[in-house]
Amino acid sequence: MAANTRRCLLAARFGYLASLTLIPLWMWLYPAQPSYSLGFQLLLLLPLLSPAAGLLCGKPYTHAWSGFIASLYLLWGLTGWWVHSDQRVMASLVVATLLLWLLASTYYARYRGRELGLGLKKHKETTIS
To answer: What stretch of H or E contains 99?
Structure first.
């Protein structure tokens, strides 16, 4: 594995694990009004847990599609940053780790996919006479 690919993998893993830690911490430190039940909070974390095995194993395909999940949580984090001015420090940390996960996973999938020859195949152009 090339050095750039390895750095992107490490950054993506760090961003994911930091997000996996900070998001529940944010929910616990600043409970929503009205207070959500523990079961509902765990349900909100299920999408965050779904790509864990593939991300930690370094599967490029999982890194590629996990960006959609990171984007959803990024929207949630930015909304929290905008709406709750008293929570901006925690929201900023969450947004930063989500951005790191999103960007590093995207570049890892790109670099590793090229190394493995997993790119999209180009079709031969046909002309109509």
So the answer is: helix 88-116
Residue with tokens 């750039």: 4
The number of residues in the chain equals: 129
Give the predicted TM-score (pTM) of the model. Answer: 0.83
* Helices of type H across the chain: 3-29, 38-49, 52-57, 60-83, 88-116
Q: Tokens 């765990």 identify what position?
A: 42
Q: What is the pLDDT of residues 77-103, one digit of tens each?
A: 999 899 999 999 999 999 999 999 999
Direct distance between the N- and C-terminal alpha carbons of the chain, in angstroms, rounded to an integer:
46
**Shortest CA distance to 79 belongs to which of 97, 94, 59?**
94
